[in-house]
Design brief:
Layout lengths: L9 H27 L4 E4 L1 H8 L11 E5 L4 H10 L3 E4 L12 E6 L4 E6 L9 H10 L1 E6 L2 E6 L1 H15 L4 H13 L2 H13 L3 H10 L4 H6 L8 H6 L5 H11 L3 H12 L3 H4 L8 H40 L16
Parallel strand pairs: 2-5
Antiparallel strand pairs: 1-2, 3-4, 4-5, 6-7
Helix pairs in contact: 5-6, 5-7, 5-8, 7-8, 11-12, 11-14
């Protein structure tokens, strides 16, 4: 994603705007079919972030359309994507554990179109239908790709910016750039409402982590009274270390032993749709079989680094718990600070 700074060359700007128009048109095609089928959807990130957080002269590129539908509409939306020539690439490797599944990745080879089909937000643990209902209340009408569509309002956009940083941690500069621009452009009152929305959809912990991962946002987090997490799991899920460290913590949290065994099997032998996120597994049944055969070796190679990161997260969480730090001067109601 290009972010403001030194202005890109005119040719680069032209190419980026052309790519955005193409993605907008591809997303509009899907939204039109969803609307015809009576399926409500929200356009997340992408064009919505570009319109709210960036000026027309600035470039905020995106390569796919993120669409949110109600969970009960998911089968219908999937059927429409198949009719339009999209193929389900499954869930990302990060979705083996421990967060609830939140999206599927769909692609169409003929024109390289890509759709991320969401039925919840990453970082929210509330029922998916409740999440959709709350976000629909925080949406507004706009135009994208020549069609009217609904996008998130500033309150829900502020929430999503922070959740997006928590999801990608420090590994991707684009989400941090969006969040930092949102902090500059949106008033504190909007962030107060965003924190309350995060509590309603049980995303308070991820919302807090996203703000605290961005240096520019930590002062705002202190103002809102959002304390650093003392949870090992939260620190791992929003860190930059190997995913295996998160899986290890998830495994240790399971009780009784038979549940740990089921979790271990799920980590070592993920569902086929998850395995197809790996290139080799997309080459038909033979490629999928090879991916499964090679997975134990990949897990073994990554285990030492995962253990080191897990131990570091435990030490950091212990230090935060011992310090008992709770920022003073909070402007949030007490019930909005419980996560």
């Amino acid at each position: 994603m290009m972010v403001p700074g030194r202005a890109p060359a005119p040719a680069v700007q032209l190419a980026a705007r052309g790519a955005r128009l193409r993605v907008d048109a591809q997303g509009a095609e899907v939204r039109a079919r969803l609307e015809a089928a009576g399926i409500d959807c929200l356009l997340l990130k992408g064009r919505a972030f570009a319109d709210l957080l960036y000026t027309p002269e600035e470039i905020r590129t995106y390569g796919d359309s993120d669409l949110l539908v109600a969970q009960h509409d998911l089968p219908g939306a999937e059927a429409i994507l198949r009719e339009l020539g999209y193929r389900d690439l499954g869930h990302s490797a990060m979705h083996v554990a421990p967060e609830p599944l939140h999206a599927e990745h769909w692609a169409r080879e003929s024109d390289h179109a890509a759709i991320d089909l969401h039925w919840r937000l990453r970082g929210s643990r509330a029922p998916a239908e409740l999440v959709f209902s709350e976000l629909w209340r925080h949406s507004k009408q706009t135009e994208a790709g020549g069609r009217s569509t609904r996008i998130l309002d500033p309150v829900a956009t502020a929430l999503l910016c922070s959740l997006h940083v928590a999801q990608h941690a420090l590994g991707a500069p684009g989400p941090r750039a969006d969040l930092e621009r949102a902090i500059v452009r949106l008033p504190t009152s909007t962030w107060v409402q965003a924190a309350a929305l995060a509590t309603r959809i049980d995303a308070h912990a991820a919302f807090t982590d996203g703000l605290r991962l961005s240096p520019a946002a930590r002062e705002l987090a202190d103002t809102l009274g959002l304390a650093p997490s003392a949870s090992v799991g939260r620190r791992l899920s929003t860190g930059t270390g190997p995913w295996g460290a998160t899986a290890l913590q998830w495994l240790l949290e399971q009780q009784p032993t038979r549940r740990r065994v089921r979790v271990a099997v799920r980590v070592l032998v993920p569902p086929p749709r998850t395995m197809r996120r790996f290139h080799a597994a997309r080459r038909g049944p033979f490629g999928l079989a090879l991916a499964y055969l090679g997975r134990p070796a990949r897990v073994a190679l990554k285990t030492p680094a995962a253990l080191r990161h897990w131990r570091a997260a435990r030490r950091a969480a212990g230090a935060a718990q011992a310090a008992g730090r709770t920022p003073t001067g909070s402007i949030l109601p007490r019930d909005s600070r419980s996560g």
